[in-house]
């Protein structure tokens, strides 16, 4: 089965589910109703096990197929891909580690429908990691607080990073473990249902089997495509938002019988200016999706090289560079699309009953997670001085014992 055939077959399988999720998107937004039902639908349909190899009971899809489906899901409701971002990052980390025992242990839980959230970043005056791991009876004890814990409210497990002495330590904690509390206190104006609030750990027991990795400052993912993977998740979500903007703008125009400045009834869908706006929206959506899928192909090549032990530093550099380049363009394209859609309807397009503003708010929020200006500078440094983004980052933080690269790259 070709990659495109695989995607089409899975798209046909999941499309009714995506349509069901999309049907409730506006109501959830209006009422700020957390998407527990939608997440449960994905869980029960096996969506969360898409990347788990068939030998472990999953679908074993390629990265281009995964990101194609994530774009489809984001078109239905852009909160959903962000909710499962940490989960898929955890799975990808296990795939990339090629640790057979770890894969056997954790993939069985993924195939059973269990989900992961992240507890990596903190809200503080400096880039610190204040969560601590200390030796305790029967294993370890975890204490501290994290913010921006995307998806954790919906999850069964939390993937967190803590400090032990001067080392970073990646751990996994069950959300129902004594001492774990989660709060729905995310106050961003977009992605309001993503569950990106606070997680607290109060003397939480962590068994040795749930300690994934220990590393020194400056050693975070020296060679990996995981950071690019996490960034591409945001870009796939943005590409889905662009599609949703095209869909909603088209539906809005097709139902109208009056146009600005035209007396009596008219047909806005026949207006050349309106047609031009829709045409532009279609181009922006297509270009964004194309860039995401092209970047996914690069990541897939790196993943395949890892499986055959042929991956080189240049492969990881290319993954970062191509994803950073896509980011610079996709952000602008989608933000343009989510503003331009209002040009087709005048003031009536601002009705809260339609919530068309959610597309811009969600896109702007996603675009702010990993500021593009820093990635643009990294690209310039690479092309001018031959310094890869990973090398530049490691040099900057090699002496900083309390810095985490981004929202889940350490797992």
TrEMBL record:
Q: Which residues form the Acyl-CoA dehydrogenase C-terminal domain?
A: 236-370
Please state where this protein is localized.
Cytoplasm
- Gene3D superfamilies found in the cross-reference section: Acyl-CoA dehydrogenase/oxidase, N-terminal domain, Butyryl-CoA Dehydrogenase, subunit A, domain 2, Butyryl-CoA Dehydrogenase, subunit A, domain 3
Transmembrane stretches, start-end = none
Q: What is the main EC category here?
A: oxidoreductase
Q: To which pathway does this protein belong?
A: Sulfur metabolism; dibenzothiophene degradation
Q: Which domain of life is it from?
A: Bacteria
Per the record, the GO terms for biological process are:
L-leucine catabolic process
Catalysed reaction(s) here are:
dibenzothiophene 5-oxide + FMNH2 + O2 = dibenzothiophene 5,5-dioxide + FMN + H2O + H(+); dibenzothiophene + FMNH2 + O2 = dibenzothiophene 5-oxide + FMN + H2O + H(+); dibenzothiophene + 2 FMNH2 + 2 O2 = dibenzothiophene 5,5-dioxide + 2 FMN + 2 H2O + 2 H(+)
Pfam families attached to this UniProt entry: Acyl-CoA_dh_2, Acyl-CoA_dh_M
Q: PANTHER family this protein is in?
A: ACYL-COA DEHYDROGENASE, ISOVALERYL-COA DEHYDROGENASE, MITOCHONDRIAL-RELATED
Membership in a protein family: Belongs to the DszC flavin monooxygenase family.
Q: What is this protein called?
A: Dibenzothiophene monooxygenase
